Amino acid sequence: MTTTVALPSTPPRGPVPADQGCLVVQCPDTPGVVSAISTFLTAAGANILTLDQHATAETGGRFFQRTTFRLPGLVAARTELEARFATEVADRFGMQYRLTEVGKPKRVAILVSKTDHCVLDLLWRNRRGDLAMDVAMVVSNHPDLADRARPFGVPFFHVPATRDNRAEAEQRILELLRGNVDLVVLARYMQIITSEFLAEVGVPLINIHHSFLPAFIGAGPYQKAKDRGVKLIGATAHYVTPDLDEGPIIEQDVVRVDHRHATHDLVRLGADVERAVLSRAVAAHLEDRVLLDGNSTIVF
Amino acid sequence: MTTTVALPSTPPRGPVPADQGCLVVQCPDTPGVVSAISTFLTAAGANILTLDQHATAETGGRFFQRTTFRLPGLVAARTELEARFATEVADRFGMQYRLTEVGKPKRVAILVSKTDHCVLDLLWRNRRGDLAMDVAMVVSNHPDLADRARPFGVPFFHVPATRDNRAEAEQRILELLRGNVDLVVLARYMQIITSEFLAEVGVPLINIHHSFLPAFIGAGPYQKAKDRGVKLIGATAHYVTPDLDEGPIIEQDVVRVDHRHATHDLVRLGADVERAVLSRAVAAHLEDRVLLDGNSTIVF
Amino acid sequence: MTTTVALPSTPPRGPVPADQGCLVVQCPDTPGVVSAISTFLTAAGANILTLDQHATAETGGRFFQRTTFRLPGLVAARTELEARFATEVADRFGMQYRLTEVGKPKRVAILVSKTDHCVLDLLWRNRRGDLAMDVAMVVSNHPDLADRARPFGVPFFHVPATRDNRAEAEQRILELLRGNVDLVVLARYMQIITSEFLAEVGVPLINIHHSFLPAFIGAGPYQKAKDRGVKLIGATAHYVTPDLDEGPIIEQDVVRVDHRHATHDLVRLGADVERAVLSRAVAAHLEDRVLLDGNSTIVF
Amino acid sequence: MTTTVALPSTPPRGPVPADQGCLVVQCPDTPGVVSAISTFLTAAGANILTLDQHATAETGGRFFQRTTFRLPGLVAARTELEARFATEVADRFGMQYRLTEVGKPKRVAILVSKTDHCVLDLLWRNRRGDLAMDVAMVVSNHPDLADRARPFGVPFFHVPATRDNRAEAEQRILELLRGNVDLVVLARYMQIITSEFLAEVGVPLINIHHSFLPAFIGAGPYQKAKDRGVKLIGATAHYVTPDLDEGPIIEQDVVRVDHRHATHDLVRLGADVERAVLSRAVAAHLEDRVLLDGNSTIVF
């Protein structure tokens, strides 16, 4: 009976060809916009792989499109392609747009406190190759999860945060993040995020919370839910805005419960749905599938 | 090619034997209570068919039990059995209890306004024999649904109700209900129910509403949900208390939606989940499966 | 207390503007195909409303697209538009295509036997305006459902069918259908459909059955499922091919069950999921959302 | 910025009081059985905490009951209590029964091959205190997962198994298991289990597989499912019998998929549902909630 050192059994995320791009646009809805984008890409030598589009009204609404394509030599040509797209298409239709390389994973910081269900699910899915991200760091206001995060090969930083040193702690986190990440995921980070932090961080933040809000606000939401006899427990993942839990919703889900579930069972089941919902929301963001429309989202 | 008059294709609800009973109790949790009930029933000659019980805490909580049993001659013996149960068991444990005959359907009034999805689902399920109820009447503040309800063989009464005649309209409805029903179902009845009505009606009321509350309160909840980009649409069935939409929850469910669903699609999908949730809640109540525990429910 | 004749409370399906079209195509995947279609439509004066596309592989696969658009004067221009599309686009890419008017509902025959759950859900949804269909007729091998179907304003034809007169019965049904319908829905029609019937009917057929297949084949599937202790009951809607229950799947769903459900409960819950799945499958077909890819479907 | 060694953030599974017991019985259904059990327990000084019972028919069926209770001094009294229960109750009703201490976790071996989703979910849930088990060992026919399992503090044994050394490998596994475990979980163990192994192992085995069976049998089930265009992907957890994938079902679940999911997405989503279903099945077994009724299960 011998045991040997493990080799990685899950291959890293498939080598996405370097020549795959993703173009995400939004603009006032105008006849001809789909044709203009697809003709531009085709003329540039690109082969459209997927195309999702949405208009918020039959006329006079807002138009959204996500297109993935293959274009040999994309990496070298991207800057010039983007400039040409601006001149030839985007300016004409008043578009906001992003042109990204599919093969270039986003750099992500995960902020956590003491519970591990969300961060471990993200790290595990990333190791399997299911998420298009490089985890630049895990940051926590507690030291507890260091030994759980580091075996995944990611740096863990402990930044103690209390009511008294919030400004200082946020500055230390901003120093860690600056220039290093494209996305911050609050994976059950139990500290308030200030408007100042949001103004400075310069990248989107995704948060996860239980779905009862605005019901059962404040401490002990699961106990309050138990007292009301709710039959569903849910979680909501959303972008963080200055109104902390009111930002645009990316993903939601629920599980059924009944009277046999004690409050601690609700907490446990809530954790299950939280990790599933947060992982799906992060996956969608990483693939540039989430487009903002005011306080709402379009998830292609 | 001949067509003939239809015979009913669905047999009426199976002839539940006249000797099946249901005993529902609640009391402070005390050692020996399960044994006391089951021993009483066995000694009385009953065979226990199903038994569900629940205690809200390991010690010092509240105890709930629903027992169905077969007892030859139950109909004739019920009054005496109930009296003996009071003396021998209920008084000793400080129990509230109900002893009902399973074969005796509850008499139900369905209150509706103009939309038919909830009332038709209830009437259709009842015709198939899936609900243990006799529909005594459908009452509406609009005449529109008369021709849809009456083919199911139930009386339809039109009681116009406006802001100005609410008290009078409620009195007319109370006259119709008095002595005739064991349950009132608000199947999308778009009128406020006053505390006075609740105080006088003397039977439980079950209501159905969308699940966003307390979010998106007031008019146009689906438009507000659309603006927020919610990914789930739900419905909640609950008992009516003077706090109209805050009563004990009986059943909830949700359906997934996305940005492609216009507001009218959310309304339509909301109707689907409303009819499913209301029918399940009513079915549970009719079978004496719903026990009240403060503002919460136990649904066996 | 007066009751009056009901007025229809549900407005008929929204007056879809006469100038909305739907173009569905499939062809070998080729660079430039999206651009070609959208450029053709834009040049023709159409405004694209929605566009869904799918390729079965990154290269060398098959391409599918559904585009809805508004084109003033579509009804008058449709024939010429179709001819031009054939010449300018379809021939070039080897496309199969359909160009339909969104405002022109499909004509549907519903075939039933004795159980009403599927047919009533379809008729009720159609009356609310949720389905883009005109129900040309309900045909049954039993007379039972005449009085349930006709109140919806649809003709009901009784065509007795037995093992002995199958060929004759199928001929009578074919006479009823010929030229009158665009779709046949088998809404729990408990007769075998022969290959001869399929060869002659000339329109698609959609069927619904329980989801256990190929398990629990033959009579009494719910009893067999009960004996195996299954925890999920499901239904599958599919197009009918000569291999009756092996045709391309359009929609599936399930409900949870447990040991407390007797076999007749499984049948009843199976009916719930059957009506939901069939209605969703029919809705998708009516809106030209279902594209065939070999024995598989793409449902946009 | 300091980081420190992590302390466990999740408390171990709550210290279940040593005086909680679980009594699981089955016997031919007989009047008086519920009363006999509850009276026995009450007379013995036990306080019933939960009671679930089920009869497979109104009369003449089989009866199943699971009762949890608190009895001060249970650990010391258990042997004598069991003997008295045999004499006073079990023999009289022809019962099979098990009397277990809730606070005594079952000893479990987890058998795996190369994929980690099921084993890591079990180990993670166990570390959080959600599962009533001690993981005695992880055994694999590959060395790959050693470094993923051992950080959870469990032994990992590598037992190479091939077509040629199956008998020998099974013998080595049996030696490891003998006397050490109460349950074996096949958490994606991709080796055939022989009847000889089952005959010798002496404890139950739980397996997990995709839910298509008997459809898409053999290699590549997800590709076959993709080719058929299935809309649901599911998993089934069951006890292992000599008919490998035909044993009594404990738990099942599904997730929705559509044409946009490539075969490798189906595999990935299948893994998600597999880990959820297996963890729920194992949790139910560990708490003595699963009772066998022929080839079916009752899961209280």
Please, how many domains of chain A?
A: 2
Q: Quickly give the structural class of chain A.
A: alpha/beta
Portion in beta strands of chain A: 25-35%
Q: How many separate helices of chain A?
A: 8
Which fold name corresponds to the CATH topology of the largest domain in chain A? Rossmann fold
Element pattern of chain A in H and E: EHEEHEEHEHEHEHEHEEHEE
Cα shape of chain A: globular
Q: Rg of chain A to the nearest angstrom?
A: 21 Å
CATH class assignment of the largest domain in chain A: Alpha Beta
Taking strands numbered 1, 2, ... along the chain, how are they ordered across the largest sheet of chain A? Answer: 7-6-5-8-9-10-11
CATH superfamily caption of the largest domain in chain A: Formyl transferase, N-terminal domain
How are the elements arranged and paired?
Four copies of one chain form a homotetramer.
Chain A: E1 20-28, H1 33-43, E2 47-55, E3 62-70, H2 74-93, E4 96-101, E5 106-112, H3 117-128, E6 133-140, H4 146-149, E7 156-158, H5 166-177, E8 183-186, H6 195-201, E9 205-210, H7 221-228, E10 232-239, E11 249-256, H8 263-286, E12 290-293, E13 296-299
Parallel strand pairs in A: 5-6, 5-8, 6-7, 8-9
Antiparallel strand pairs in A: 1-3, 1-4, 2-3, 9-10, 10-11, 12-13
